[in-house]
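Deadline looming. Please check this record:
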Amino acid sequence: MAASKPVEPQSGTGLPRWQVALMVGAPILIGAGAVYLWNRSREKSKKGKRNGERETPEGSASPVSKPEKPDGDPEEMNPLDRAQAAKNKGNKYFKAAKYEQAIQCYSEAISRCPTEQKGDLSTFYQNRAAAFEQQQKWQEVVDDCTQALELNPRYIKALFRRAKAQERLDNKKQCLEDVTAVCILEAFQNQQSMLLADKVLKLLGKEKAKEKYKNREPLMPSPQFIKSYFSSFTDDIISQPLLKGEKADEDKDKEGETAEVKESSGYLKAKQFMEEENYDKIISECTKEIETRGKYAAEALLLRATFNLLIGNATAAKPDLDQVINMQEASVKLRANALIKRGSMYMQQQQPMLSTQDFNMAADIDSQNADVYHHRGQLKILLDQVEEAVGDFDKCIVLRPDSALAQAQKCFALYRQAYTGNNPSQVQTAMDGFEDVIKRFPKCAEGYALYAQALTDQQHFGKANEMYNKCIDLEPDNATTYVHKGLLQLQWKQDLDKGLDLISKAIEIDNKCDFAYETMGTIEVQRGNLDKAIDMFNKAINLAKSEMEMAHLYSLCDAAYAQTEVAKKYGLKPPTL
């Protein structure tokens, strides 16, 4: 599984791309990767981050506040002065939590204000919206904010207040457009608006992914992806090569009798198709074995479930996995393997408790199975339980000292723990561990890939580039390595052309590499090519292997689409490369 997508401990409602987040310097919220640019502009700014609530009500929509006139003799006051006096009175009621009286005063201010005084009039509408907000009259909030924005289109308070009201009304699309405009106007320096954008993007992504994933057409991934997947198992019976006497061209079984394998055993034919990388025929051949109740029915159930998982059809995979797990006559190795795969499926579905239960059950029934500890270690990393992950990798290594993958992933777990804990000495120990791994296992592409990610974090870009080159030498058909190397060029040399060339090469090698399309879309957002970014995200969505991954991609796509709508409506665009 060399140069696979980095994993990230579970946080909140999703699993963010840890490595990409580190690359840009902050969690990805809105704009699909443009955070790098926003942070860069933030470093140049001397303004601090504003995290507090916006004060309400206010005196003026203008950036420069004007001194408020005292309440004078109404007969000596002009219409604007009278309107201001009514507004001032409303502010006092507002601060006293007398919202109905405040609304009446703001309404008076609106009626008295000359129509040409657009700035003041927009303030009165916004203040009345603030009072309606306290009464939870969300539609009235939207209506008054809309009036304020018609008078002052870039009025941040009105935009954000309307965004919050739209969220309450479950108008997510309208909420996202408003909060996107706020984020851009504020140069992405207000945490409140960014958190709201993130929240709405996740909700929209989940809604769309749920519907799309339910109706998606299953898609077989690339041969490289499938081979990488099976390479992560050492005790997986169904992925082992056919033994002598099992192949379709053999005419004797081990007892010396004629074996009509080619005609009768769908499972053995499926295994032969695996060796030939003719993956599209495997599920149908397994079904034949299962329906005829052949002697390899348990193996066929597990193999069919595995390929259903690979094509993203967890609904079809689960009954087969359940059946194998509960099949007492099946070998322990088969049942443990089914538990590992069902546990991994649960983790993809964001059900960590069920996932943990399955892995623990696998360890109980097959305590000497190295795969259990290897894959449970990966689960523990996702759950940010690094010490437990290291313990599982150690158990795997004791059982399989030649497991280069477990050795590399243990180093990565230790590195992650040291890096996030800001412990330089332990970071160096982990880096030394990577050197030892690649020295002892020079053919393990994953070792170089994980080491390269750690080197990139430490800004040792030249050496990281060397590690990615070694990955490519070992696995020239692994598209994700080219994507990581392309991202490295952007961070290291700000070489956009070279970075894009490498990611395009990834797509050329594997046109089913969703990670490449996602990354390309992220870069196109940074370049301001929003339409192209949306196209890339949509391609990634169609290739997503889980509903959770699809929801993440929809969030990126919706963020880009919201920016196109804001650009049309307000003429606002975030910084570009």
